[in-house]
Design a protein that fits this description.
This protein is 36% helix and 24% strand. It has 14 helices and 13 strands. Belongs to the GSP E family.
């Protein structure tokens, strides 16, 4: 039976109601939901090429793109199902067939309380200036964490927030702040063009959807140097790999200067991964939080000392609210939010993690 618009929207509504994060639609295959991290096949007929083309016609509003659909190899975009959710989608070709990955984004902008994030996240969001990076693998919840931080700013500060996104995900309604959300491709041609114009648009806070290259990073650091608070995302696993990635994007002869600029302007990194909750009904973010201090600043500037950052993070738990992944995972386990098996499977240093459970964390576990 051919897919209809009503049936497609019903699939989205069912997925949103069940807490599904992504929907996979592929030619000659049944739809799949990503539910709590696992792919689950839906009881539905395999989708035909015509079914996928219908879905594209519903989601893609640009008539020129639709006319050339048979020639498109990949395409990103978003659309809204009113009263249900927003959808970020990626169209791809595989073996000559159409595939679609749909990321469901709640109409409700989350709060840090909704996401059960550490209280220090609001403090980081309230910084006056500097570079704040939220990092993690695709699907680790970076966008939700950033949206919650912007939500906090929106409720507490009379500032101008400028976001550069590809595409816009959570849509913020101004409360105390004025929020300008610009979508790459629709409102501006690319990140670098938008960033070069951003400093002329009187922002107090700039959010960059992704730090993709040396030019983006350099402009972001410049914005932080001139007194702006800048948020960005990087596809890295922790603070050490984030710092290494940013520096490595520049030519060798520029890297020492970049180290100094980064050391002076990086305010915090928030690295996260999603763990299954103990009841099996959801997921919770485990976060490594690095907040810059004199020791970390020196470790960024001196390559031989960079490895010491991990120690400074652990020592900062009782002073600045910083924490390592293992410190947070230990807390999540002791609070009964994750199982021991899940904790062990996701610990950065499993041996140290088990020792700390047995003898206590000398760095100040909750």
């Amino acid at each position: 039976m051919a897919l209809t618009k009503e049936a497609f929207l019903s699939i989205i509504k069912s997925a949103a109601a069940s807490g599904v994060s992504d929907i996979h639609l592929r030619t000659d295959e049944k739809p799949c939901f990503r539910l709590r991290g696992d792919l689950v096949q839906v009881k539905y007929d395999p989708l035909t090429n015509d079914d996928l083309k219908l879905v594209c016609s519903i989601m893609i509003k640009d008539s020129e793109i639709l006319k050339g659909l048979d020639k498109i190899k990949e395409h990103d975009g978003s659309f809204s199902v009113p009263g249900v959710c927003r959808v970020r989608y990626n169209l791809m070709r595989y073996q000559g067939k159409i595939g679609l990955i749909l990321r469901l984004i709640s109409d409700k902008v989350p709060t840090t309380e909704d996401l059960k994030l550490p209280v220090v996240i609001n403090k980081i969001a309230g910084a006056n200036a500097g570079l704040v990076l939220v990092t993690g693998a695709t699907g680790s919840g970076k966008s939700s964490t950033l949206a919650a931080m912007i939500n906090f700013i929106n409720k507490t500060s009379a500032v101008h927030v400028l976001t550069l996104e590809d595409p816009v995900e959570y849509v913020h309604t101004p409360i105390k702040a004025r929020i300008t959300q610009r979508e790459i491709g629709q409102d501006t041609s690319d990140f670098n063009s938008a960033l070069r114009s951003a400093l002329r648009q009187d922002p107090d806070i700039i959010l960059i959807g992704e730090m993709r290259d040396a030019e983006t990073i350099s402009i972001a650091i410049k914005a932080a140097e001139t007194g702006h608070l800048v948020f960005g995302t990087v596809h890295t696993t922790d603070a050490l790999s984030t710092i290494g990635r940013l520096i490595s994007m520049f030519p060798p002869e520029e890297q020492n200067v970049v180290r100094t600029r980064l050391a002076d302007n990086l305010h915090a990194t928030i690295s996260q991964r999603l763990l299954k909750t103990q009841d099996g009904k959801g997921r919770v973010a485990a976060q490594e939080i690095m907040i810059n201090n004199p020791g970390i600043r020196e470790a960024i500037m001196e390559p031989s000392k960079t490895k010491d950052i991990y120690t400074y993070i652990e020592k900062g738990r009782n002073t600045s609210g910083a924490q390592s992944f293992d410190q947070h995972i230990t807390s999540l386990y002791k609070e009964g939010r994750i199982t021991l098996e899940e904790a062990k499977a996701n610990a950065t240093k499993p041996e140290d993690f088990e020792r700390n459970l047995m003898f206590g964390d000398s760095q100040g576990d909750d």
